[in-house]
Specification:
Elements lengths: L5 E6 L2 H10 L3 E4 L12 H10 L3 E5 L11 H13 L4 E4 L10 H11 L3 E4 L9 H7 L6 E6 L6 H12 L10 E4 L8 H4 L6 E4 L14 H12 L9 H9 L15
Parallel strand pairs: 1-2, 1-8, 2-3, 3-4, 4-5, 5-6, 6-7
Helix pairs in contact: 1-2, 1-8, 3-4, 6-9
């Protein structure tokens, strides 16, 4: 029996959260400060959103723009505060100066999460070797998802890689859910669903009025309906089609920001 595709929506506050749930979101990614591409929200924001909705929440653990861990001690403290407030799912991902996974920083934070489920975010799209990163993290406790566009620039360029990685499901380092986000548009969906990709992440696409406006329940509902339609026949040549998609510039507010989401 098939299950419906997961739709994750970025939420900045309780108003966003309520609208996203009303539109059919399955899960929210909680962040603040989209000018820095999404940082850890205050604990009070988490508690307000937790009180407002009953769907899954994944809280970003990221203290500054970029993909370096920065102050690891502070990261550990913040993770502990959020755990104490009831957060039980998270989003994180740290690279070193060479573009490899910062394993020590990840291990320190994951230790505090004590088995909570978490997503390694789009730092993977900036890594020097994403296959090596996946294999290095293959047995990390709680890691169940990679948020990726397949390329640093977004899904248009990354589509062939996403399809290839979907085909490696079950190999060492490829057991986690592939959550696609980063410049994601509705016209990508018919190429992703037939490949077995069943998790989608939107930010700007849920906000027709831009990041200064709240999430639109209607926009989220449009995505929900698109994901719930029967899967179309796979395109005959997804690689060539990706080239034509790359030439299709997204409309304003049409896609998520490309880093780290």
């Amino acid at each position: 029996m098939s299950t419906r595709a997961v739709l994750e929506v970025i939420a900045l506050d309780a108003e966003d959260a309520v609208a996203a749930q009303a539109g059919g979101a399955d899960r929210l990614e909680l962040v603040t400060d989209m000018a820095a591409d999404g940082l850890t929200p205050p604990t009070r924001t988490f508690t307000a959103i937790r009180a407002a909705v009953d769907i899954d929440l994944r809280v970003m653990l990221r203290l500054a723009d970029g993909f370096a861990a920065g102050d690891a001690d502070r990261l550990v403290d913040v993770a502990g505060e959020l755990r104490a407030a009831g957060a039980d799912q998270f989003v994180l991902g740290f690279l070193d100066a060479a573009g490899a996974v910062d394993l020590r920083a990840v291990e320190r934070v994951v230790e505090v999460l004590a088995g909570c489920r978490w997503t390694f975010h789009r730092a993977i799209d900036r890594s020097a070797d994403r296959d090596a990163l996946r294999k290095e993290l293959a047995d990390m406790p709680g890691l169940d998802t990679y948020l990726t566009a397949g390329a640093a620039t977004g899904v248009d360029e990354g589509l062939p890689r996403l399809l290839a990685e979907a085909g490696r499901r079950g190999e060492p380092g490829y057991g986690q859910t592939l959550l696609v986000g980063g410049g994601l548009r509705l016209d990508h969906v018919p190429h992703l669903l037939p490949a077995g990709i069943d998790a989608f992440h939107i930010g700007g696409a849920a906000r027709p009025g831009g990041w200064a406006a709240p999430v639109s329940a209607e926009a989220v509902r449009e995505w929900r309906q698109a994901l719930d339609r029967p899967s179309p026949v796979p395109p005959r040549d997804a690689g060539n089609h990706a080239t034509s998609l790359h030439a299709h510039a997204p409309a304003p507010g049409d896609g998520s920001r490309v880093a780290p989401h």
